[in-house]
Amino acid sequence: MQFDAEVAVKAAMGVFWRNGYAATTPQALMTELGIGKGSLYNTFKSKHNLFTLSLARYSAWRMEFLSENFSSSAPVRIQLREAVEVLTGYGDHDRGCLLVNASAELGSMDRAVADVGEGLFAGIEDAFREAIQRGQRDGELNTVRDAATEAGTLLTTVIATSLLLKSRTDQSRVLRTIDATLKGL
User: Fold this and answer.
1) 169 — pLDDT class (breaks 50, 70, 90)
2) Fold of 56-183
3) Cβ neighbours of residue 62 under 8 Å, at least 6 residues apart?
């Protein structure tokens, strides 16, 4: 039976996002992907390799979202709020960010996970910095602090609120954090 490896990676991404790496069994992956053990290992080599492919796909998906979001005609402040809410899952789900979760679970002991995480986090911070610079040039955002500092603060907010949502904290706490961070811009 033929299957589309890219579709399988997206499906695996969902399994890892729901369960985490350690709690995801090869059997759960085979069931979700609708493939046998031979197909799983012949195509993806290992659970870990499929995990890193899933993280890379997630990272690309998030960067695609940011590119679309920051090219809209909405005010920059609204674009930034939308980005923070989507990246954390606020109002949508309580899984947090897949790469924040993976970094918390494995980042200190798994170089491949740390590398994908660092790539996404740097990409998010760059996208925030560019949007903030645009908002500062247009007079929509204040220029008290430089855009790089503000972008770092927003990235930290995304990571922290993602973990709060994952722990099923009260959403009003998360909203207060997002509001306070964006108000400072």
Assistant:
1) confident
2) Tetracycline Repressor; domain 2 (1.10.357)
3) 87, 97, 99, 120, 123, 124
Average pLDDT over residues 88-105: 90
Q: In the numeric block, which tokens belong to residue 47?
A: 């659970």
Average pLDDT over residues 125-132: 98
CA distance to 135, 165, 168, 174, per residue, from 177 (Å): 21, 12, 15, 5
- Rounded Cα distance, 40 and 145, in Å: 50
Tens digit of pLDDT for each residue in 146-168? Answer: 999 999 999 999 999 999 888 88
SS3 of 29-41: HHHHHCCCHHHHH
CB 136 within 8 A of CB 102: no
- The Cα–Cα gap between 9 and 85 comes to 24
